[in-house]
Structure formats: structure tokens, C-alpha cells
């Protein structure tokens, strides 16, 4: 668009310079040169604005990628640990139900693991009792043997 304006201005300048001579031509050329300079400054400003906007777009794209990475890491860590309700500010509204579902699944997993720990503790208690009983039976066996030896000594 700006390039077309510049081409039109140059063609107008050439026509007017060929058609007229003298001081009128120099005035026309001065006016056209000023218009050309104004168009060039407008073009430079537009290019600067475009560059600034492109930089802002790039920064925003980087921010979006960073937020996606943060969201993904939060989502991955949610399967390992429970999330605080205060940390859900980064999650979009549509994923709140997904978060609630994952929290419910984590709560169920927590209950299941607690039940396993209780069963394991009960089994450990059973093993301890069996150990005590084995030690008692071993000591009874030893004392019975000693008693038999003592009986044999007294028989002689």
C-alpha cells in the first residue's frame, strides 16, 4: 500500500516536472518531496509498530508455552500427590471437574493404601506372636531334655 503510494507520487512528480518548467516545478517538487518524506516516516513508524507487536506476540506465545508446561507438570504431579485448592488458579474452568475426579481417585487410592497398611500391621503382629510361641516351645524342649537328663542321673 505504502509502496504503491510512493510509486504514484514518483510518477506524478515525473509528469509535472516534464510538463512544467521554472519555479512552479521546484515548488511542486518540494511539496511532493515533503509528501514522500511524510509517507516514508509513516511507513517506518508502521514497521516499528509491527516489529513491537511481533515481539509482544512472541513473548505471549512463550508465556503460553510456559503456562502449558506448568499446567502439565501440575497435572502430572497431581497423580503423585494431592493438589491444594489454592493451586487450582492456574487451571482453566473446564478442567476443574477433571481435577475433582483426580482428587476423588487419589482419595480412594489413599484409603486403599491405608487398608493395606492395617492388614500388614495385623500380619506383623501375628508373626510376632508366632515368634514368641516358637521361642517358648524351644525353651520348653530344652528344659524337657534337661529334665530327662536329670532323671537319668538320678536313676543311676
From TrEMBL:
Endpoints of the signal sequence = 1-19
Q: What is this protein called?
A: Uncharacterized protein
List the keywords (alphabetical). Answer: Coiled coil, Signal
Annotated coiled-coil positions are 36-70
